């Protein structure tokens, strides 16, 4: 047992980690430049910033009495829980991450990557990193802007709520939730894009799975991104009407357990994606 | 480290469709041409060689390295594919530079190699323009530049002359010849057999996914015993030479050259043919100026072994 562990350790030390790190960084930079900072991604910008625009209009037009701050706090929690997690980040990540592999197969340019001296696992993780950076930059900026604009109209009372009250803690929770959502959905959509020529129907199934998750046994509930995120919400938003259908009601789980659980799920999905990309073949004629 | 490209009993099936079947090859350094009709399996062989597709059975190794070991493999291999597509919005030089950056070399070195490759591929000022605005020939050149930029030991070229004008073809062929003379492996598939034939050391004939023949072009031609060989003899009295040959050798056809200063003869026994030709020359009745095989090029071999309909005979 000790000998095997020593062999594995030696084997790991012999791997060219420095080269892989350099390749992954360069790949990420190339990927960001080529595919994600472009006009084609404008609809994802729209998805991310439409609530920001609405909150800005609210700030400029509506009155802000201190008594309405609690209501606005609830609205912001609802925007994060119902809009960003269920729609904005979900579809934004579908657009960003499914493009990374499948998009390049459709445009017949993936072979250039596969013909470079880069391990396919490094290629996949580099592309995932590029997708993660893009989605995090977009959605975290949007959520921080939403938060700032929501309380900006309250003047001193707003500053008091943010800096001396629970405001900053809530913002941290929203940032954590959005980050985990981007990584979780990103990993899932990256895998789906390798498994299916058109990952959109599969993504709709994921959306359905997330919606029916509350009625599933607790073991199956753990295979849901949104169910973990629900436990991290700083403010509980009661589900009403159509939202009730979309709201996940699971057994209470501590914040750290939810975060670790989701990170574990992401690791498992990425590991399987690495396994799949090893056997990926370039057959554009069948795309 | 081996210096060979080896296919060990390799088969590839796309579902129920045959790509190539039980191909065994041992390709030494030099220029090797893959010859076969459309759909014969040439591109499949090249994709197998570079790991873009994986064999259903058998093994492929290039210089002793398997394509699955990408880090080591693609330091030594460049592949100019037939896929005429590029990442969107990319400039010519940027395309080559991005590819080199993934090798893990310094930015300065990558930039130097990029400029060198662009120059070798004769792209000139076009390198600063978007590839989307390139002509087909220029796209072919930028793919070639990208494939040779890292100084590979093995260069795989799928129809590299497609879309090139005669001048660019000549430049590319000269470059291939130069690379071959430097000891590189060049594996080329092309329909332009006449031009590739001039620089090829070896030929691999494939049709319907099956290997038909492989080896030195002249050797392959001589092995095609059932097709009489054609020889052009330049001499002062071709009609007398033809009549003597018909009497003493198994000549099956004689055709005077258009300028009247030579004759094309077909013979079923080339060894005896040359022996008798020596005797005639010694006799002094006919003054022989030159003797050259007239149908041991890739084109003729293709016609004899595969035929114009693409089915092996």
Describe the structure.
The complex is a heterodimer of chains A (287) and B (313). By secondary structure, chain A is mainly α. Chain A has one domain (21-286). Helix content of chain A is 77%, strand content 0%. Chain A contains 13 helices and no strands. Chain A is globular, with a radius of gyration of 21 Å. The mean pLDDT of chain B is 87. In chain B, 36% of the residues lie in helices and 27% in strands. The two termini of chain B are 38 Å apart. The radius of gyration of chain B is 23 Å and the shape is elongated. Chain B has 313 residues and is an alpha/beta fold. Chain B folds into two domains: 5-217, P-loop containing nucleotide triphosphate hydrolases (Rossmann fold); 224-301, Alpha-Beta Plaits (2-Layer Sandwich), CATH 3.30.70. Chain B has helices at 42-49, 70-76, 92-101, 107-120, 136-148, 166-181, 193-197, 217-223, 238-248, 270-283, 298-305; strands at residues 5-14, 17-27, 30-35, 57-62, 77-80, 154-158, 185-189, 202-207, 210-216, 229-235, 251-256, 262-267, 288-293.
List the helices and strands and how they pair.
The complex is a heterodimer of chains A (287) and B (313).
Chain A lengths: L1 H13 L2 H20 L5 H20 L7 H38 L3 H5 L5 H33 L2 H10 L2 H29 L3 H14 L5 H4 L3 H6 L10 H6 L8 H24 L9
Chain B lengths: L4 E10 L2 E11 L2 E6 L6 H8 L7 E6 L7 H7 E4 L11 H10 L5 H14 L15 H13 L5 E5 L7 H16 L3 E5 L3 H5 L4 E6 L2 E7 H7 L5 E7 L2 H11 L2 E6 L5 E6 L2 H14 L4 E6 L4 H8 L8
Parallel strand pairs in B: 3-7, 3-8, 5-6, 6-7
Antiparallel strand pairs in B: 1-2, 1-4, 8-9, 10-12, 10-13, 11-12
